[in-house]
Amino acid sequence: MTGPMTEHFTGNFTQQEPIPEEAIEAAVAVLRHGRLHRYNLAGGETGEVALLEEEFAQLLGAKYCLAVASGGYALATALRALGVGHGDRVLTNAFTLAPVPGAIASVAAEPVFVGVTESLTIDLEDLEAKVGQARVLMLSHMRGHLCDMDRLMEICEAAGVAVIEDCAHTMGASWNGVPSGRHGVIGCYSCQTYKHVNSGEGGLLITDDAEVAARAVMLSGSYMLYSRHKAAPAPEVFERVKYVTPNISGRMDNLRAAILRPQLRALDTQVARWNERYRVLETGLRGTPGLTVVERPAAEVFVGSSIQVLLLDWSAAAVEAVLARCAARGVELKWFGVPEPVAFTSRYDSWRYAPAQSLPESDRILAGIIDMRVPLTFSLEDCALIARIIRAEVSAVWQSDL
Q1: What domains, with CATH codes, occur in the chain?
Q2: How far apart are CA 402 and CA 399, in angstroms?
Q3: What distances in angstroms separate CA 6 from CA 285, 326, 382, one per listed residue?
Q4: Which terminus of the chain has a lower count of CB atoms within 10 Å, N or C?
């Protein structure tokens, strides 16, 4: 008989669900006609990319949308569209993933890191202290955690700071009823395999600012074919920017867009499924000695495609023991306190192209962040089992360290 301490999880933490049949059929139709390039259209045809942009703009209530090659490209395009360039300073989270400071570095700008709280959101007190150092905040909703967006916008608007929202982990989320990506001047989303819709790679950018949208379209490589966009500004807006905006090609193609459109229509259903799994994990982990569950605010509608817990003030050796013990039982955890970057778990002090900063309070929190993907290939029973394993191993190490 298998007892609780010998249970083993055999699932795969990187295995996503299959692409829906409707999306596969749409992709095959594109392959059959061969018009993969977004501007290669038959007479009277709109094209999958233009339709995706129109549908995503409608979903978010935005005026304009641009589909691009990746979420990281969307972030860099957002910065360029706002005129950020060489030597400019850009505020951003100390707790984020490398593509965010990477986008800032790609336009030769300089990241200014803002601290992280135990809620894993940007430290609004630290933001208020630093907001005068830049004219743009690239806000990362890291791992799907939304800060008090009403307060954040008050701080930024009072200082004249434009907000770009990195919504790679928050497509389908909202704060006080406002969708993630709709508070700032620009919202950027990822369609990479581990995000909420899957085209392997891909990105989306939304805005209500006509000139920003026109610059973004020109930057993406529209040449003078911008009239083929649907969720785009009027031609006269392009007339103002088309000769002074460089082409930095990063368009999405019709094949990816065809795969994404059916997935967008199922987003609400998928969000509900992720959150079912998240709540099972959260319930199973709450009350574990030495482990802090990150409580979610009532104003936040989130997407539980990953879960984070804190082992605050644990020694590095104790955290490593938890990771090793869980791994031996089939549970793959990532640690943002690891001294050297592993996979995606780099930190602000890993990005040595950015000026060094001292954030001791954030260092303490980063040293305790444990992260786990929650793919929809996991059943609710899988999630309950994973929670039991983590709880048991954290408790065992905690007791041995007392």
Answers
A1: 21-265 (3.40.640.10), 267-401 (3.90.1150.10)
A2: 5
A3: 18, 11, 15
A4: N
